[in-house]
């Protein structure tokens, strides 16, 4: 039994390692697939039942999940220009590495958005534009890198993204993405509405995702059963 637990821990560690390695460059599908195969196989093991994930709010947005956002108005994807270290734009018609954001889950609706070069999305500092969305922060330690994903009741993959300043992101043009929208419509023509694509094959379903997903109050009860 001990041996088996050790082996599982090893596999979990490996999955994390592969996932981290995969993050470092432009998205590389071969590495992603390897992690998934290990992960799914691992989950068949009894001590971590797939049903453990069922009660997690927004369980399709676990820590580490990769997502892409297409502006319904422009029909283009949000992109961290140069993979990070620069502005966030919306001028790509297809989504690859720079258009993929890895979610660090703060709680059920709040996330840090990690871009291809491992920096985080945030807002430009006051004076330099303030509301412009950039991806140049080395850490997500301040509240300025925390965004809320607000899902549409009828279509959970239709979202709006609330920035740390309390306002919503909007893609007013392909090269201007700012956090200054105050409306509330869900029309396609609304510059703050995005179609969220979840790269489900990239999702890691491990012990950390369970505890982080349930949060500090509920996780201890779940993990005890
Ligand atoms: C997107 O916009 C940025 C900033 O203006 C520009 O540097 C880049 O070349 C554009 N990319 C495409 C594919 O239009
Ligand atoms: C990385 O991906 C972006 C778009 O996602 C692309 O424009 C760029 O050429 C890629 N860079 C490399 C080195 O593959
Ligand atoms: C989630 O985190 C955000 C940002 O830290 C916080 O403002 C919010 O109150 C939290 N929500 C819950 C339900 O804990």
UniProtKB/TrEMBL annotation:
CDD domains: beta-trefoil_FSCN-like. Transmembrane segments: none annotated. Residues 58-198 form the DUF7910 domain. GO terms for molecular function: actin filament binding. GO terms for biological process: actin filament bundle assembly; cell migration; establishment or maintenance of cell polarity. GO terms for cellular component: actin cytoskeleton; cytoplasm. It comes from the Eukaryota. Residues 1-21 form the signal peptide. Keywords: Signal. PANTHER family: FASCIN (PTHR10551), GLUCAN 1,3-BETA-GLUCOSIDASE ARB_04467-RELATED (PTHR10551:SF13). This is DUF7910 domain-containing protein.
């Amino acid at each position: 039994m001990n041996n088996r637990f050790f082996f599982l821990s090893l596999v979990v560690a490996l999955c994390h390692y592969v996932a981290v390695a995969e993050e470092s460059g432009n998205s590389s599908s071969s590495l992603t697939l390897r992690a998934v195969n290990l992960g799914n196989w691992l989950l068949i093991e009894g001590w971590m039942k797939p049903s453990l994930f069922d009660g997690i709010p927004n369980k399709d947005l676990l820590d580490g999940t990769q997502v892409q956002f297409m502006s319904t108005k422009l029909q283009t994807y949000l992109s961290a220009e140069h993979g990070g270290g620069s502005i966030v734009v919306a001028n790509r018609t297809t989504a690859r590495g720079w258009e993929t954001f890895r979610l660090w889950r703060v709680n059920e609706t709040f996330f840090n958005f990690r871009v291809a070069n491992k920096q985080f999305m945030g807002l430009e500092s006051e004076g330099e534009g303030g509301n412009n969305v950039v991806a140049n922060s080395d850490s997500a330690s301040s509240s300025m890198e925390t965004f809320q994903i607000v899902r549409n009741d009828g279509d959970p993959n239709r979202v709006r993204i609330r920035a740390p300043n309390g306002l919503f992101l909007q893609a007013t043009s392909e090269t201007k993405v700012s956090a200054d929208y105050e409306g509330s419509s869900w029309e396609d023509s609304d510059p703050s509405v995005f179609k969220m694509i979840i790269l489900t094959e990239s999702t890691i379903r491990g012990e950390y995702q369970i505890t982080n997903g349930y949060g500090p109050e509920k996780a201890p009860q779940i993990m005890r059963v």
